[in-house]
Amino acid sequence: CLSIVSLLPVFFFQMTKSVTNPEELGGLASQMTNDYGHLALQGRMAAATAEPEEIGFQIKTRVQELGHGCIFLVQKAGALQICPTDSYTKRELIECARAVTEKVSLVLSALQAGNKGTQACITAASAVSGIIADLDTTIMFATAGTLNAENNESFADHR
Question: d(Cα 102, Cα 129) in Å, to the nearest integer?
């Protein structure tokens, strides 16, 4: 999901850059529409699994707002293709691209907020893995008899 969101600003940049070449806008709008479709599907799954439920609602809402912004951007791209010399439409396209870029950052922040629990689990799992590795190393040395015993008991007695 995050990888799709990170691709969208590239298309917005290309779209604003294509103001000088309006014939490129159709292909860019089509690609952006496809990418948004993938994002919407992934966003729906992320929202459904997000904890707390409030984060899921935020993801869903922000992805929808991004979709509305994408619609306006595609409409402005179409309008510029119809009249490529209209400076007002060019400015509107650039403003729409700027607004969509803002919405992308809001989607990213919502996804990252929903990712905090996952990151905490990954960190905890990493810490537990480190402890297990330390225990395995200690067991290996103890089994080899390189650790000093406090009395005449063997490691096998305590294992």
Answer: 39
